[in-house]
Amino acid sequence: MCEAIGKLHDRSTRSSSVKLGKQLGTNLASWSNYRLGTPTHYASTITDSSVAIVQSFKVRLARNGIGSATPLTERPYLVIGTLNFCYPTIDSYLYHDSETPSMAAKDDSIDTRIPPTCPAPISQILHHAWRHDLASLKPLLKEPESARVQEPTTGESPLHAAIRACAPANQGTLPAAADDDNDNNVEERAKAVVHELFMSGAIWNSLDNNDETPGCVAARLGLRGLYTLCVEAGVRAELLFGLLDGYEELESDDGEEGEGEEDGNAQDGGEVKEGENANGSAELGGAAEDVEVVVDSEQTFVPKRAGGPDVNSKDYLRSDLTYSDGKLVDSAQNGVMMAWETSIMRASVEALLPDLQAGRRILNIGFGMGIIDSMFAEMHPSKHHIIEAHPAVLEHINSSDSKFGKEWEASGPSDGAYKVHSGKWQEVVPKLLEQGETYDAIYFDTFGEDYNQLRMFFTEYVPGLLEEQGRFGFFNGLGADRKICYDVYTQVVEMHLSDAGLDVEWQELEVDMKDLAKEGEGEWEGVKRRYWTLDKYRLPTCTLMG
Ligand SMILES: C[S@@+](CC[C@H](N)C(=O)[O-])C[C@H]1O[C@@H](n2cnc3c(N)ncnc32)[C@H](O)[C@@H]1O
Q: Which superfamily is assigned to 112-244 in CATH?
């Protein structure tokens, strides 16, 4: 029965109930590593992973160590993932049958996040960060890349560690400080460490093996101050990337110099052979790459960044598209447009044309399912221009299923007033500008393009295309696959809009997540990736400044 709860670690080979009794008052390792008292039923599927496992079982908890395994309690519980036990708050980690927690619990314990297999130099940094030991951490951060190391199997970075240590169950693992009377002081110390890590080049959006950025951990644990620090770092980083974009790396002939430096380092450090730098902080510069770590390849954590695009415009514009019930998908099953966005399109129309008056001049970029164009068309505009690049969408527009074909173009109040411009906006828009076209409302919603394209559009073209009192809007899906990225991009885009001479007002809309909550289910059935995960949409309405 014991094996059923998973692989037992060395430490739990002694009688587990005794161990439990002895360790009460300290932080115990994860549930899967220990037998608690005499469980009547074990949950057979408990593993070390943090996925949600919900199963009812009964457990008796031993309170007083050897020989006194008195049942403390015996009742059915739901087990949610791998659990940490930290007496006396043990009940808060066990859920009664009647309670169904909304989120799968994550195992935030230090033993799980920084396992014994962690290479020593990385482990050292992570432990200092976890303990908020700034004095010991600072010298290590002088080594290049050291603020960016990640534990090879869990992906724990020093940022994750400093933040995660503030979890209520972990606070017992932290050294007491003179002023450590309340939780807030722990967070304050963590903030100092997080600040230092960012100043040393830590990456705000590195992902761990729970698919969490450090900011996601802060948000989950309700650590607002730490979350804000992560958002601010994200904004700084994204603004910097924005500045660097467009600059080319200058050719340099210092390749040899670089090699020389490497040699020099090796000499400085004495005879450092590959794999031998596992103990000293002095060798940390190469820690992440050089230390030979033997790990199960299936378990090896592959670091990546959150919020990166996974579709590119060139491939998208060449791919086949399928219009089906309520959605438009490309050949890789990426959702290009989906009917659940209709309420967002409606609210966008109302924000762009608040008086809903007829006779307005409208430009829409990206036809998709024609949802917003149908709404614009209902308003009997005096000019309605659509720009669309994908051949399959253009074919659809000209099919009998669409009301935007040649007949619609011919129905305009004047020649060329209603028009679908075929081609990429990057090619069409400069011509419209040249022709002196202007609009009361401009909406931008393309697919497969990165943020720089949107930025180029509103910086280089919107000021020339928009009437003085006109309004510009765009589908705000920037970073919408996680809250922190959405928060970062809201600030970044606001600054860039301001640079372009545009004011923005945000309107927050509720998104009904009932059919959007699970990957591959509900609205996402047949769609590769859930590109929207948030219950609030921030709708931007932009106007020309002053
Ligand atoms: C998300 S859909 C637009 C949905 C639309 N707002 C609606 O209400 O149905 C994006 C559209 O932009 C088009 N598109 C992508 N890149 C483009 C580009 N560079 N120029 C013009 N259209 C583009 C796509 O083919 C697609 O039809």
A: Ankyrin repeat-containing domain (1.25.40.20)
